[in-house]
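In this section we walk through a basic example: taking a raw amino acid sequence and producing a predicted 3D structure, encoded as discrete structure tokens. The instruction is simple. Fold the sequence below.
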Amino acid sequence: MLQLIRTWFDICLLRTGPQDLPASGFLLGLSLACYVLVSFLVALPSSGFIVAVQLAALDVGMLAVFVASLLYLQSKTGRIGQTLSAMAGSGSLMGLFALPLVLLVDPDLPADQVSALLAGSWLSLLIWNLFIMAHIMRHALSTSFAIGLGAAVLYALVSMQIVATLFPQQAV
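The resulting token sequence is shown next.
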């Protein structure tokens, strides 16, 4: 397990890619389970239990559909498991880094009254997460970092729009 976390961490540092993870159904399941758990924990402070469960399920579903669709369209379906494991694993770690920031935010405080340090930290994590996703997609698609970044930004924008549409009370 420690080796797996180390590999996810190396992916977050852009040292390794999804191809460095074993192609394993068990690993994919474990990665997705970690991702769902962390997504739930990140959503819980600002949502009720049921909404946090729904947001976590939607999050993992969107990630799986995005990765599978993009790799299917590029005829690289053999890479879906490793890519999804890398995305879920690195997303889990980034979620754990974001969790303290989420816990520091008062849910009753308007968004424009969040401290500059907290907002800057959150923005830095968001940008770094986009870079990680771009790095993973670059390797999965065998393309440039710019194309990977475009895919990552597209995913972020579409997923934020879907969440804002389905859970308008969660949009800030």
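Looking at the output, two observations stand out. Residues 2-10+17-170 form one domain. Residues 3 and 9 are 10 Å apart (CA to CA). In the next section we compare this with other chains.
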